[in-house]
């Protein structure tokens, strides 16, 4: 059933799943309290993309909350939050010089220098969401896969771009061959295309199911993840090298260990299959909290796997043993509302704490801090990128306006907001929340 839905209406299904994940995460107090296996918590919604630096010291994550976060894997802490994209950050990566690349559903690619608050460069040209990116082996070209049915090549040397247009539906994944002379792309049209970059020709392999994900091994072998839950492997010329049934739900993300021995295949159902690439078998299946896993990446040690989930959390696993790693690490957050135990308003606020902090000293999250909230005009907090629609509104936050926001819902009260829809039906609960915010956010 999942494969059929993805085939017939991929964008509708994807948007539904994203929305469902966002609503279930923000609206449920259990989503905030369940921290036993969480390593890194900072996104205010599903973690759509993760990438690890070549030295294994830094993680870059992109979320449906429109932000990207640079993490220190030594201290398990967020070092910088990047706010530029106006929609989900679907793909991230590292350039050889240490700079970072983010690409989003807003059809833009941004290139960042660590520590800088604005991107060094913005690449524009796509007409629909960008679903994946790849960086050439020499670090001089970025390839992007888009739902506008095209692949684009962006030169970082002279700023030129090249458009590859043979896909007939959304393009979901792209990757360079190890020698950089060819490029592979996959899409909902069942097509795997091998682009020969020197002469501009291409070869097409049609596979049995819509293709959601792609990786290319160091020896050139091509691995695809499909809507039917299967991995299909091909040689560098597109010849069949076998397939593996990874699960029963669509595969949405793939990763390969640096030594090429293990493949991680994440399914929309929340399980991650660990596959021995040499013998083409599933070694084990990792099962998280039951929500979709949107992103996976291996650390350089070839056995530690990072996963980004629909609950906004990044987890660590030992891919060889299947064990979750380090529930006690520094990145595992203490309860931020522990000091307010017994406060009814704090209990109501638990549905908001995933995205908002109460103090300017806390690590930034996806939404703006609520410190000093009352008396502040909407969309006026310095340093936060608000939706353009909010900047023209004449709203000042007070107990009355906050109560109204949750009485009728953000979509009605602040149309154009990126805040997930949620309402508080009880007038008593709304009053408890506004009273809690009065003392918890006072500077």
Characterise the protein shown here.
- This is Cytochrome c.
- Residues 340-441 form the Cytochrome c domain.
- InterPro entries: Cyt_c-like_dom, Cyt_c-like_dom_sf, Cyt_c_1A/1B, WD40/YVTN_repeat-like_dom_sf, WD40_PAC1, WD40_repeat_dom_sf, WD40_rpt.
- WD repeats lie at residues 40-81, 82-112, 123-164, 164-205, 286-327.
- Strand 8 and strand 9 (121-124) form a beta hairpin.
- A 4-stranded antiparallel beta sheet has the order 1-28-27-26, with no helix packed on it.
- 15% of the residues lie in helices and 35% in strands.
- The protein is built from 8 helices and 28 strands.
- It is α+β, with helices and mostly antiparallel strands and 443 residues long.
- The radius of gyration is 22 Å and the shape is globular.
- It has 2 domains: 2-318, Methylamine Dehydrogenase, Chain H (7 Propeller); 338-440, Cytochrome Bc1 Complex, Chain D, domain 2 (Orthogonal Bundle).
Q: Would you summarize the structure shown here?
A:
Keywords: Electron transport, Heme, Iron, Metal-binding, Repeat, Transport, WD repeat. InterPro entries: Cyt_c-like_dom, Cyt_c-like_dom_sf, Cyt_c_1A/1B, WD40/YVTN_repeat-like_dom_sf, WD40_PAC1, WD40_repeat_dom_sf, WD40_rpt. The chain contains 8 helices and 28 strands.
* Highest-level CATH class of the largest domain: Mainly Beta
CATH superfamily of the largest domain: YVTN repeat-like/Quinoprotein amine dehydrogenase
Widest sheet, order of strands: 1-28-27-26
Which second-level CATH architecture of the largest domain applies? 7 Propeller
Distance linking N and C termini:
52 Å
The Cα radius of gyration reads 22 Å
Q: What is the percent of helical residues?
A: 10-25%
Average pLDDT number: 86
- Assess the beta-strand content as a share of residues: 35-45%
């Amino acid at each position: 059933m999942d494969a059929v839905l993805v085939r017939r209406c991929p964008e509708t299904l994807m948007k539904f799943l994203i929305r469902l994940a966002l609503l279930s995460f923000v609206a449920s107090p259990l989503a905030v309290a369940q921290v036993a296996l969480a390593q890194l918590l900072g996104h205010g919604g599903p973690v759509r993309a993760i990438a690890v630096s070549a030295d294994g010291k830094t993680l870059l994550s992109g979320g449906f909350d429109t932000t990207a976060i640079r993490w220190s894997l030594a201290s398990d802490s967020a070092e910088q939050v990047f706010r530029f994209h106006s929609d989900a950050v679907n793909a991230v990566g590292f350039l050889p010089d240490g700079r970072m690349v983010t690409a989003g559903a807003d059809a833009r690619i941004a290139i960042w220098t660590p520590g800088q608050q604005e991107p060094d460069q913005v690449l524009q040209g796509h007409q629909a969401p960008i679903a994946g990116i790849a960086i050439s082996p020499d670090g001089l070209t970025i390839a992007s896969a888009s739902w506008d049915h095209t692949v684009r090549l962006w030169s970082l040397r002279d700023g030129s771009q090249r458009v590859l247009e043979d896909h007939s539906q959304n393009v979901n994944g792209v990757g360079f061959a190890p020698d950089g002379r060819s490029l592979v792309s996959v899409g909902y049209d069942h097509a795997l295309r091998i682009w020969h970059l020197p002469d501009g020709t291409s070869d097409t392999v049609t596979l049995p199911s819509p293709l959601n994900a792609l990786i290319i091994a160091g020896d050139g072998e091509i691995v695809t993840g499909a809507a039917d839950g299967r991995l299909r492997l091909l040689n560098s010329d597109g010849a069949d090298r076998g397939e593996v049934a990874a699960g029963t739900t669509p595969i949405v993300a793939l990763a390969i260990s640096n030594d090429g021995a293990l493949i991680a295949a994440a399914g929309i159902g929340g399980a991650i299959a660990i596959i021995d690439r040499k013998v083409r078998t599933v070694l084990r299946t990792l099962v998280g909290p039951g929500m979709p896993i949107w992103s996976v990446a291996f650390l350089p040690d070839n056995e530690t796997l990072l996963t980004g989930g629909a609950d906004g959390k990044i987890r660590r696993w030992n891919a060889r043993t299947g064990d979750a790693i380090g529930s006690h690490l520094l990145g595992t957050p203490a309860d931020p509302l522990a000091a307010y135990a017994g406060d009814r308003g704090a209990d109501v606020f638990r549905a908001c704490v995933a995205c908002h902090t109460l103090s300017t000293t806390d690590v930034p999250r996806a939404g703006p801090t609520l410190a000093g909230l009352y008396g502040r005009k909407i969309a006026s907090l310095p340093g936060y990128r608000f939706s353009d629609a909010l900047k023209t509104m004449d709203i000042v936050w007070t107990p009355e306006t906050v109560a109204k926001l949750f009485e009728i819902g953000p979509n009605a009260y602040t149309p154009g907001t990126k805040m997930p829809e949620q309402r508080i039906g009880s007038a008593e609960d709304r009053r408890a929340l506004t009273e809690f915010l009065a003392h918890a956010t006072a500077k």
